[in-house]
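User: I'm new to structure prediction. If I give you an amino acid sequence, what do you actually give back? Let's try with this one:
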Amino acid sequence: MEAITTFEIWQIFFIRLWPVWIALVLTFFLAFQLRKRLGPVGYIFDSRVGLVGLFIVLFWIYAAVFADIIALFEPLDQSGLYRRKPPGTINADLGVPYIFGTDTLGRDLFSRMIYGSQIVLLIAPAATLVAYVVGITLGLPAGYIGGLYDTILSFLANLVLAFPVILLFYLLVAPGVRETILPNIMAGIFFVIPIIFALMVVFSRFSRRLSVLIPSTIIILLIGSWLYSGLVFGSDPFGIVGIEPNELNIFAAVVFTTSPGVFRIVRGLTLDIRTRDYVAAAVTRGENPLFVMIWEILPNARGPLIVDSCLRIGYVTILLGTLGFFGLGMEPESPDWGSMINQTRSYIRLVPTIVLPPTIALASFVLGLNLLADGLREQSLKD
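Assistant: Good question. You get back a string of structure tokens that encode the predicted 3D arrangement of the chain. For your 383 residues, that looks like this:
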């Protein structure tokens, strides 16, 4: 079978990524011009380490966005004639090369790697965001009010954190658990907390302005109920919001294992910030506890939380890759990076480089998040 050279492989690789390069140039140009208006995120331009991390993270974000343009094949397309082919092999029927080779089913590894970024960027940041909303909603009152509420939640958080994360994650996504109603119960609890948090924000701001409070509450309840029914029960009447059962199981497991750590961080920051003068001034003005927690304490805790969120997204990405490697993540045909590593390792002796694309993709995305967190941490310490 015909094949292209190594130089041509990399040439095609860089050319196929043209939408990513254009998007990166435009993003960095605009962000640099508006960096003073971006708050703490804008300070990343003063850190070389942070800029490198931001570049890598944005690379994979744009790769996921433009996957349909970049990929040479569909991620599930199979060809029995081109199974386990080395990088550069040309599909004679289509005249298109498999620039990173093919797997055991004849699927293009380059295309699957690009589409795999969509899975990572769909689950890891979204699940981490929900975990943060859960941790913030429960951690703010635990640190500010304290009492029995704080004692109970701190005990439960420490109880979850006492288990090895990988083992707990494995138990939560095991096939036997997936077939029960436990994922739906967990998701039902976790997805209602963002609605509660949104109501807390509105009430804390407009508690004395009923003309704004009432319609805002109604809108939040309507939108929240719509999203809740689609995500938890799969019964969105418009057919817009929905999530596959295995994805829901993974999502719930990520939130369950991540939110206790976020809770502890938020609680600790709240215990520290509540002693500051501006918090005492808000209390003296007669502001209600919700206002103090959300508009005085939370904004002043955003720096450490932003840094920690980058690290946690990377950690969740590693967990998803580990699950995929052991066949416990997405569906077997799904192009997630962990599954790709597992599928290509069986013939690494024939093609030593065959396992590198998904491995480098996973490692580079996590590296980018860690460097971005380091850059943000450097700037927060200077402030």
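You can read the tokens as a compact description of the fold. Here is one thing that stands out. The chain has a mean pLDDT of 86.
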